[in-house]
Amino acid sequence: MDKLVRDGSVKDFEVRLVTKQGKFLDGMVTASTWKDENGKVIANHGIMRDITEQKENEASIKASLEEKEILLKEINHRVKNNLQIISCLLSLQGREIQDPVVLQYFKNSQERIKAMALVHEKLYQSQDLARIEFSDYLKTLAKDLRSSYGIDARNVQLNIEAESMLLSVDIAIPCGLIVNELISNSLKHAFPNNRSGLISVEAHTADGKHTLIVKDDGVGLHKDFDIRSAKSLGLTIITALSGQLGGKVETENQDGANFCITFPVDIMD
């Protein structure tokens, strides 16, 4: 009534009333004043719609959404934990392996599993349960990879230049695995004999495309290197996942190795 007197009208004003039976009734009021020729208010008129059922439905939908958010968080948390268990099992099994080549295969598998687990960890921490902030993910992934190589990577610096990019889980996991393979390759092969070096990772979006660049200033690629004919599992994974994203891989062998992956923004977002 105060608003009606002050403004001369109210529109879609919610009220809660109590019926004679003691039940609550939610209403939506629209009203205005009638004035005489002198501008004096002589009456008020309006309507009130019963929105009790509408409010109950809204409350039910809100409760359902909150429940689904909790379930999605719990799913991401459990997936992350399960992947970490698998990684730990591989680590335990690796202690019994004497062959350094086979042991490296186990280590590579662990790194791939950790890259996937990290996506679910970021989803669990994110307010957006469908997408993650990819720049934060890249920084954590690169840091974890460097740490996993321990003393062998002590002279290698990392430089991450990634703009804000929200990626769905279906895109973030392939991208994370691609970056995982490329950084791992640089850490393993680009800087022999503990030489110092720099690995740079870039991520940006422009002209309807996402671009990932991983490069180092190490010994570089073989002169006749062609990723399409490469037989190593890591390079095969990079090619396959880039194709899955509808993108392409370009390589450059100048002052070190340079890999550039581009794919359309709307591939699965």
Question: Which keywords apply here?
Answer:
269 residues, alpha+beta, Beta-Lactamase, 3 domains, 5-stranded mixed sheet, 3-stranded antiparallel sheet
Q: What is the share of helical residues? A: 40-55%
Rg result: 30 Å
The CATH topology of the largest domain comes to: Heat Shock Protein 90
Count of folded domains: 3
Largest sheet: 5 strands, mixed
Mind telling me which CATH architecture of the largest domain this is?
2-Layer Sandwich
Order of helices and strands: HEEEHHEHEEHEEHEE
Distance, first to last CA: 49 Å
β-sheet strand percentage: 25-35%
Poorly predicted runs are none
> Please, what is the average pLDDT?
87
Descriptive report:
This protein has helices spanning 2-7, 52-94, 100-125, 134-148, 169-190, 233-244; strands spanning 9-18, 24-35, 41-50, 131-133, 156-162, 166-168, 197-206, 209-216, 248-253, 257-264. It is α+β, with helices and mostly antiparallel strands and 269 residues long. The protein folds into three domains: 2-50, Beta-Lactamase (2-Layer Sandwich); 64-129; 134-269, Histidine kinase-like ATPase, C-terminal domain (Heat Shock Protein 90), CATH 3.30.565.10. The strands form three sheets. Strands 5-7-8-10-9 form a five-stranded mixed sheet, with helices on one face. Helix 2 (52-94) packs antiparallel against helix 3 (100-125). It is elongated, with a radius of gyration of 30 Å. The mean pLDDT is 87.
